[in-house]
Amino acid sequence: MPCIPPASNYDGMPSRCVLPAGTELYRVHRQNRTGVEFSPVVARMLYGGGRFDPVSEDKYPYLYAAFSARTALAEVLLRSLPFNDRGTRLLPRAAVKERRLSSVTLTTEMTLLALTTSTELAAIGQDEWLVQADPSAYPQTRDWARWLRHQAPWAQGLVWLSKRDVGEKAVILFGDRCQPGDLRPGDQPPVDLDDDLGHKWLNEILAGYRVTLRPPVSRTN
Known about the structure:
The chain is of the alpha+beta class. The protein has helices at residues 69-77, 118-122, 129-132, 138-151, 196-206; strands at 16-19, 24-30, 62-66, 89-91, 99-106, 110-115, 157-161, 169-174, 183-185, 191-192, 211-213. It has a single domain (16-86, 101-189), classed as Alpha-Beta Complex (Diphtheria Toxin, domain 1). The strands form three sheets. A five-stranded mixed sheet has the order 1-6-7-8-3. β7 and β8 (169-174) form a beta hairpin. The longest helix has 14 residues, at 138-151.
């Protein structure tokens, strides 16, 4: 579907997806935040930001995650990462600087607005454009997220098909619709992506995507 605004006289019903208590999610985040801490950063109107980030007209803390470590890493690290003439990709060290992968567990049931099938997208007057659009269209997809929150005040987040890990799902949780304690640290230990151990682990995880992380810079005294 073309990049169009939401329906002005919408009379549909968005679809729901219920995540049971105990669901484990994975996220990539800055090391100066805990794994269960929501981001307070509001996207600028036209520049930067993620697909469904909050905007100044609708501010709220948020947390992007996925149902596997691989998908969480792909969503963050494989954006606009081109293949070279050998069909491989090289991930710059700057992409993982001060970043950590953490697991989190839901302590309570959560209800998300579902955008994972053609019928779920049609239910809100959209198609795959909304979840597959390139970053150049993120100002418009963020406007759609604001509209969806208004249409579905029950939604504690969104779930959609990952663009960078085809067949898997990504989620965003709305911090203003979650309660303290709804998330706890997961059972998997966190991984710092910018140290030697993280470098080795990350290359093993991303090998299937034909991605290699540049090695750490050698330090000499």
